[in-house]
Design brief:
Number of strands: 16
CATH class of the largest domain: Alpha Beta
Number of helices: 11
Low-confidence stretches: none
Distance between the termini: 28 Å
Helix content: 25-40%
Strand content: 25-35%
CATH topology of the largest domain: Aminopeptidase
Shape: elongated
Largest sheet: 8 strands, mixed
Structural class: alpha/beta
Strand order of the largest sheet: 1-2-4-3-5-16-6-15
Number of domains: 2
C-alpha cells in the first residue's frame, strides 16, 4: 500500500501514540489528558501555532506552508465512550467504564502523523489547520468549535475528516457526494397516569398500556406518513415503567431516535409525533408530554470536494480500493456542523475484520494509521500545491 515514505518511517511511533491514547479514554468535553498529549506532540513537531481550550479541551494547531495561500482544515475527534472494555489488550483502558470503542484514538493518531510530516516538509502553500475536537459522541463538540469561531478565526476555506470502518477492506476509502450520514434527533415521552392494584385496572388510568400504544403508533409515521423512498428511521429504544408485578404504576417513559436526511421529512416527523402522543394519551385517559430534541444535522459532502478527496485516496490505496459513490447510512456525525460552515468531505477508511464500532471488544487497527495520515498529508499538498 503506497503510503508516504516518510510517514511509513515513523509508523512504530504512531502505534505507540495510539496505544497510549487508547489507555486513557476520556468522555465528551473532558479530554484533558488526551489534549495535553496531543499538544506535547505538536510542540515536538514544531508546528507554528497551538491554540488550546477551544470547546473546553479542543485544539487548533497551525502549520505554515512555504508560500501565501488559503487555509485547509483537517479534523480528528478525541473522545471515547462510556463502555467497559473487553479487548484484553495490554494497553487497555485505565479508566474504568470508559473505552475507545469508536477509534477516535486512531483518528487522533492519524492527524498527529500528518502533522509531523507536514511540519517537517512544508511542501504546500498557505496554511493547514489541525483540528483536534472533543465531544463527538455526545455534546456536539464540532458545533461548539464552530460557534466559538474557528472557521473565521483561522480563515479555514475547506475541511476534511476520516472515520475508520470495521469489516471493510483494510486501507479502502469510501465516500460519496452529497448526504453521507443522517441527521439525528432524540425524543422523550413522559406519561402520567393513575396507578393502582393490578387486580383492579378499572380504577386506574394505565400508563403502561398508553406507552405500548404510543410506541406502536409511532411506527405508523414511517409506514404511512412518508414516501417510501425517502430515508427515515423512527426507533423506540427505551420504555421504563413499573417495579412490582401486581401494581399498575403512575408513570411511564419512552425514549428513542429519529434519523432523516430531508428537513421537510424531519418537520413532518415532529408534527406527527406530537399529534400521535396527544391522541394516544387522550384515548387512554392519561397525560403525556413530548420532548423532541433536534440534534446533529445530516452530514453532507460538497460534491466537488468529495470527488477531489477520492482522487487523493486513489493515490494512496489504488483504484480498486476507493469507492466514491457509497450508499449513505443512517448513522450520524457532528462533523456535519463543520461541513455546514465550510465545503469539504467526510470519508470512511476500512480497517479490516473485527468487532464493530461501539462494541466492548472493538480495537483500532494500527496498520491503517499511516494510510490515514498519508491521506491527510497528500490532500494538503494536492489542494494547496507550491508553484
Amino acid at each position: 500500500m503506497p503510503v508516504v515514505n516518510r510517514i511509513a518511517d515513523y509508523a512504530a511511533d504512531m502505534t505507540a501514540w495510539r496505544q497510549h491514547l487508547h489507555s486513557i479514554p476520556e468522555l465528551e468535553f473532558q479530554c484533558h489528558q488526551t489534549a495535553a498529549f496531543v499538544a506535547d506532540r505538536l510542540r515536538e513537531f514544531g508546528v507554528d501555532e497551538i491554540h488550546e481550550g477551544i470547546a473546553t479541551t479542543g485544539i487548533v494547531a497551525i502549520i505554515n506552508g512555504q508560500a501565501e495561500g488559503a487555509t485547509i482544515g483537517l479534523r480528528a475527534d478525541m473522545d471515547a465512550l462510556p463502555i467497559p472494555e473487553e479487548t484484553g489488550v495490554d494497553y487497555a483502558s485505565k479508566h474504568p467504564g470508559k473505552m475507545h470503542a469508536c477509534g477516535h484514538d486512531g483518528h487522533t493518531t492519524m492527524l498527529l502523523g500528518a502533522a509531523r510530516y507536514l511540519a517537517e516538509t512544508r511542501n504546500f502553500a498557505g496554511r493547514v489547520a489541525l483540528i483536534f475536537q472533543p465531544a463527538e459522541e455526545e455534546g456536539g463538540g464540532a458545533d461548539i468549535m464552530v460557534q466559538e469561531g474557528i472557521m473565521d478565526r483561522f480563515d479555514i476555506a475547506q475541511v476534511y475528516a476520516l472515520h475508520n470502518a470495521p469489516n471493510l477492506p483494510e486501507g479502502a476509502f469510501y465516500t460519496t457526494p452529497g448526504p453521507i450520514m443522517a441527521a439525528v434527533d432524540t425524543f422523550h415521552v413522559h406519561i402520567q397516569g393513575v396507578g393502582g392494584h393490578g387486580a383492579m385496572p378499572h380504577e386506574t388510568r394505565d400508563p403502561v398500556m398508553a406507552a405500548c400504544g404510543i410506541a406502536q403508533a409511532l411506527q405508523t409515521i414511517v409506514s404511512r406518513n412518508h414516501y417510501a423512498l425517502d430515508d427515515l428511521v423512527v426507533s423506540v429504544t427505551q420504555i421504563h415503567t413499573g417495579s412490582v408485578n401486581n401494581v399498575i404504576p403512575d408513570t411511564a417513559y419512552i425514549n428513542g431516535t429519529v434519523r432523516t436526511f430531508d428537513p421537510e421529512v424531519q418537520k413532518m416527523v415532529m408534527e406527527r409525533m406530537g399529534q400521535i402522543v396527544a391522541g394516544q394519551a387522550a384515548s387512554y385517559g392519561v397525560e403525556a408530554e413530548l420532548d423532541y430534541e433536534v440534534n446533529y444535522p445530516a452530514t453532507i459532502n460538497d460534491a466537488g470536494k468529495a470527488g477531489f478527496a477520492a482522487e487523493v485516496a486513489r493515490e494512496i490505496s489504488g483504484e480498486g480500493l476507493v469507492v466514491e459513490n457509497m450508499t449513505r447510512n443512517m448513522g450520524a456525525e457532528d462533523f456535519s456542523y463543520m461541513l455546514n460552515a465550510r465545503p469539504g468531505a467526510y470519508l470512511n477508511l476500512g480497517q479490516g475484520e473485527g468487532a464493530g464500532l461501539h462494541h466492548p471488544k472493538y480495537n483500532f487497527n494500527d496498520e491503517i494509521a499511516p494510510v490515514g495520515a498519508s491521506f491527510f498529508a497528500r490532500i494538503v499538498e494536492k489542494a494547496q500545491p507550491l508553484g
